[in-house]
Amino acid sequence: MKFPIGVLVSGRGSNLEAILSHIKEGKLDAEVVAVISDREDAKALKVAENYGVDTYYIPCLEKKTVLVGEAEKKYIELFKEKGVKLIVLAGFMRIIKKDFLDAFKGRIMNIHPALLPSFKGLEGQKQALEYGAKVSGCTVHFVNEGIDVGPIILQEVVPVHDNDSVDSLSQRILMHEHEIYSKAIQLFVEGRLKVEGRRVKVLSGEVKKE
Ligand code: GRF
Asked: For 59-71, how does the pLDDT look when each residue is reduced to its tens digit (9 = 90+)?
């Protein structure tokens, strides 16, 4: 069986699509066994269905910006049932809290559209543009109890052009997101990510299958 991953989404699903397409092309040695969305209208659900992946819409009624309560329990149960070994956040718009983090310790990744630790939180691309940064980029990191502060796995630098709009910069960054997310997942699948405090070292060669 291929390495089972679970994906959390809330929106468009372009990162999910890139992951599924890399799997199809044999560039990523994993299988997406479940996609959960907290929003019924997330396009990402359609993306997953088109690839024949099981999808679940599980609303979180208690809060708007965090995953808590009954929904959190259901998410954990479902991913456990499916034997998920890595959780990938792909445009999931809620903060992950302790119970979920404990259930999948060291096994949750996120992608952020800026070079962390700069421009954390929402609209990283707009923040970079408004700040006047000459370069920005994207970051794949492990998720911990803070927001966008978990150990950094991979980053890619993207130039900011004088005539950029938020849309044009976001588009340029997104192209790189689609590449580095799968690379980071593949490194995890190959057991090549070693976390030492804040630092994530990439071990050379294939070490162990998770
Ligand atoms: C991406 O910009 C990602 O960096 C951020 O949310 C956005 C999700 O886009 N975390 P998509 O749903 O993958 O198209």
From this structure: 999 889 999 999 9
